[in-house]
């Protein structure tokens, strides 16, 4: 049987335990609420462009469509035993493009040339020669006289150099490499221009361009 003093001590301990548990529960509840002076971090994304985005360089724009009037570069390999001039002329006819021969390298044989020193003299060369220079032009359709053909300079086995306009065969003795550029829509012009020609060209338009390109012999 508890006396009065023991009963008071027991009641005080029970009250203290209840008070401590209540303080812990209050601390837990208050932990979910923002404390005074705390800064709340927002999760919203900022509006507008990032700083400096307007000054960033834009990627270049490339036009991939090829223009029909653009020059195209070609590396042509002419097989041994084939006529170099005839092969290039056939390429121009089949592709319907003009060919401008820039250079060539390789060996040729059985060459027929017209030398510039003697316009009427045609010289046939037999044997093997190395190409030093090869230039010329070919058009796909009817062309004015003298606008197509090749000019070649060759070196012989003894070191002699000979050259001229190719008027006959130019047979490749081995693989001959030709560097060329092709073009289309070439316009034939007769120089010097006269006032009547300029007025006629402006008046006839496409008809004049047609005759100048495909039938220059009828254009006067």
From TrEMBL:
Keyword Oxidoreductase part of the UniProt annotation: no
This protein's UniProt keywords: DNA-binding, Nucleus, Transcription, Transcription regulation
Domain PPC positions: 68-207
Bias type Polar residues, positions: 11-21
Record's GO cellular component terms: nucleus
Localization per record: Nucleus
CDD domains according to UniProt: DUF296
Pfam families: PCC
Signal peptide (residue range): none
SUPFAM superfamilies (UniProt xref): AF0104/ALDC/Ptd012-like
Region of interest (Disordered), residue spans: 1-69
Chief place where the protein resides: nucleus
Protein name per UniProt: AT-hook motif nuclear-localized protein
């Amino acid at each position: 049987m508890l006396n009065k003093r023991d009963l008071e001590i027991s009641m005080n301990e029970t009250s203290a335990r209840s008070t401590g548990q209540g303080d812990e529960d209050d601390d837990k509840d208050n932990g979910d609420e923002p404390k005074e002076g705390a800064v709340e971090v927002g999760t919203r994304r900022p509006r507008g462009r990032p700083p400096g985005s307007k000054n960033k360089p834009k990627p270049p724009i490339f036009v991939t469509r090829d223009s029909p009037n653009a020059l195209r570069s070609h590396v042509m390999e002419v097989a041994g035993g084939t006529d170099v001039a005839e092969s290039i002329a056939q390429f121009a006819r089949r592709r319907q493009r003009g060919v401008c021969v820039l250079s060539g390298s390789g060996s040729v044989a059985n060459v027929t040339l017209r030398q510039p020193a003697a316009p009427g003299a045609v010289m046939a060369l037999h044997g093997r020669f190395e190409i030093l220079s090869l230039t010329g032009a070919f058009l796909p359709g009817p062309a004015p006289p003298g606008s197509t053909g090749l000019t070649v300079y060759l070196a012989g086995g003894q070191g002699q150099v000979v050259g001229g306009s190719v008027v006959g065969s130019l047979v490749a003795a081995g693989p001959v490499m030709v560097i060329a550029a092709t073009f289309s829509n070439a316009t034939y012009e007769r120089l010097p221009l006269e006032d009547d020609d300029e007025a006629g060209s402006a008046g006839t338009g496409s008809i004049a361009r047609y005759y100048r390109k495909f039938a220059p012999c009828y254009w006067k």
